[in-house]
Amino acid sequence: MLTRPTYQIRVSGQLDPQWADWFGGMTIVYEEQDETVLTGLIADQAALFGILARVRDLGLTLVAVNRIEVEGREVPSDG
C-alpha cells in the first residue's frame, strides 16, 4: 500500500498558524528557539518542492527538511 510521507520543515523565525492553508494544511508550531516547524503529509516530491518554493517566496530561512515515520503508518522507502 502506497501512503503519502509525512515531512517536518523547520524555518527560522515565527510563522503565524494562519498560513496553514497556504502550506497545504500543514500544522504550524512555533518553538522557543525562534524556529517554526511545519508538519504534514505531502503527496510527492513535486508537492514538496512547491511547499519549499512558498518558504522561499515568504523570505523564510530554511533550517531543515526531514521525512518522518508516523507510528502505525506505512511509509514507502526511498529505494
Structure description:
The chain is of the alpha+beta class and 79 residues long. 16% of the residues lie in helices and 33% in strands. The chain has 1 helix and 4 strands; from the N terminus they run E-E-E-H-E. It has one helix at 45-57; strands spanning 6-12, 27-31, 35-41, 62-68. It has a 4-stranded antiparallel sheet, with helices on one face. The longest helix is centred in the middle third of the chain and has 13 residues, at 45-57. The protein is globular, with a radius of gyration of 13 Å. The chain starts with 5 loop residues before the first strand and ends in an 11-residue tail after the last strand. Residues 75-79 have low confidence and may be disordered.
**Sheet with the most strands, sense and barrel status:** 4 strands, antiparallel
- As a percent range, the share of strand residues is 25-35%
Total beta strands: 4
Uncertain regions: pLDDT < 50 for 5+ in a row?
A: 75-79
Structural class: alpha+beta
Spell out the helices and strands N to C.
EEEHE
**CA-based gyration radius:** 13 Å
Overall 3D form? globular
How much is the average pLDDT?
86
Quote the distance from N terminus to C terminus.
Answer: 15 Å
Number of helices: 1
Which percent range fits the helix content?
A: 10-25%
